[in-house]
Amino acid sequence: MKNHPVRVHRSDENLAREGQLAWKIAEVASENVAVSDDVTDMVINRIIDNASVAAASLTRAPVVAARAQAEDHPYQPGATVFGVTGRFSPEWAAWANGVAVRELDYHDTFLAAEYSHPGDNIPPIVAVAQHTGRSGADLLRGIVTGYEIQVDLVKAISLHKHKIDHVAHLGPSAAAGIGTLLGLDTETIFQAIGQALHTTTATRQSRKGEISTWKAHAPAFAGKMAVEAVDRAMRGQTSPTPIYEGEDGVIAWLLDGPDAAYEVPLPERGETRRAILDSYTKEHSAEYQAQAWIDLARKLKQQYPHLSAETISSAVLHTSHHTHYVIGSGANDPQKYDPTASRETLDHSIPYIFTVALQDGEWHHERSYAPERAGRPDTVALWNRVTTQEDAEWTRRYHSLDPAEKAFGGRVEIELTDGTRIVDEIAVADAHPLGARPFARADYITKFQQLAAPVLESTEIERFLDVAQRLPYLTAGELAGLTITPATPFAPGPKGLF
């Protein structure tokens, strides 16, 4: 890997495009580099993982609405959409599938200077691959690039510090991945990256306060914009330049300002792209910083079955700055303690999540968020006694570049009504590569089988698993099999303009 210095340039400095971050990303994307076996295996895992959470969300309102929009845009050759037969315009297929993948907050994650769900790259790249008749090997390389660029940007440039939504890194990474898929030249990919970034910067209000259904749509929108940006670039259209470094560009006005300086790591020429191996998936349907806390609560339930609203006077979760201020009591969002809050809001409330996981000894993507579950009197009582505090050491570990030290958990201190204390801690989730039970292919398959069983026939489940696991060898015709379709069609979705 090579670190590339990135700073704001005045217009009269005339920064050459070869010195611009978007160009350097495009150079990575336009190079044809072999994919290693372990990276191939992980791409297959994540395709299965995305299908798992998409299957579990097929009947949820945001997914139904997005799917209905795609159905109003049939197209040939087009791309497939989860949950329905037929082919649709690729940007709308990317949109519908992106919402399905993101709705339950249940797929992979990477956390560093910024946070991300790099699996969001997969829907737009698959849609374009199906539409353009590419092979499984082409798709594989495109997805590898999407992961590489997003993870590298996330390692270097913080967006949330300036209240910019994390999908601002997704637009460029998806555009780069599509560029690799199609074998586009550096110039075309460069223009697409600039347009994709320019159109996907938005504020973090989508993840603050009363969180709405837009949370699932935000990355799908970025993927859709990436598809459209590539289309425009292929037609010879250009984009704002320099998009990152310009004196009126993204860094100068949306991020660290005119004096900003970053070091962005990117692969050297010919270097194998391995960033996907730095990411990790979720065993539980909740914000990633909650994964380890769910596992700790599950463990405490087994060790101390007497823990309850009657026996606990307070529980303090000592954790990282990010966890405390984004999903903890440090956010100062009253909605995080509101039993009538939306699922999206509860998903970003670690006091709620820890309470329910401690009481139930499990976490379920539907039961744990049910209104009757959130409103249970003993849950509300205990929930209001759970708070978070920032701990400098856990913050340091959260930002550590050493994989063996990097942590997303913390230490819990529980005060009981009889005066005794219980103290325990966890660094990473059980499913993390360094956790107690790291996810492997069998776990991804089990997750898909369990989540898909209520909506898909067993034959469809096995068909999809067979296609996904043959990814590098799929022909263009077989690539259409990377979708899931229930035996009984769903009722039509709501109507809008189309």
UniProtKB/TrEMBL annotation:
<dbReference type="InterPro" id="IPR042183">
    <property type="entry name" value="MmgE/PrpD_sf_1"/>
</dbReference>
<dbReference type="InterPro" id="IPR036148">
    <property type="entry name" value="MmgE/PrpD_sf"/>
</dbReference>
<comment type="subunit">
    <text>Monomer.</text>
</comment>
<dbReference type="InterPro" id="IPR005656">
    <property type="entry name" value="MmgE_PrpD"/>
</dbReference>
<keyword id="KW-0456">Lyase</keyword>
<protein>
    <recommendedName>
        <fullName>2-methylcitrate dehydratase</fullName>
        <ecNumber>4.2.1.79</ecNumber>
    </recommendedName>
</protein>
<dbReference type="Pfam" id="PF03972">
    <property type="entry name" value="MmgE_PrpD_N"/>
</dbReference>
<feature type="domain" description="MmgE/PrpD C-terminal">
    <location>
        <begin position="284"/>
        <end position="470"/>
    </location>
</feature>
<comment type="similarity">
    <text>Belongs to the PrpD family.</text>
</comment>
<dbReference type="InterPro" id="IPR042188">
    <property type="entry name" value="MmgE/PrpD_sf_2"/>
</dbReference>
<feature type="domain" description="MmgE/PrpD N-terminal">
    <location>
        <begin position="20"/>
        <end position="261"/>
    </location>
</feature>
<dbReference type="Pfam" id="PF19305">
    <property type="entry name" value="MmgE_PrpD_C"/>
</dbReference>
<dbReference type="GO" id="GO:0047547">
    <property type="term" value="F:2-methylcitrate dehydratase activity"/>
</dbReference>
<dbReference type="InterPro" id="IPR045336">
    <property type="entry name" value="MmgE_PrpD_N"/>
</dbReference>
<dbReference type="InterPro" id="IPR045337">
    <property type="entry name" value="MmgE_PrpD_C"/>
</dbReference>
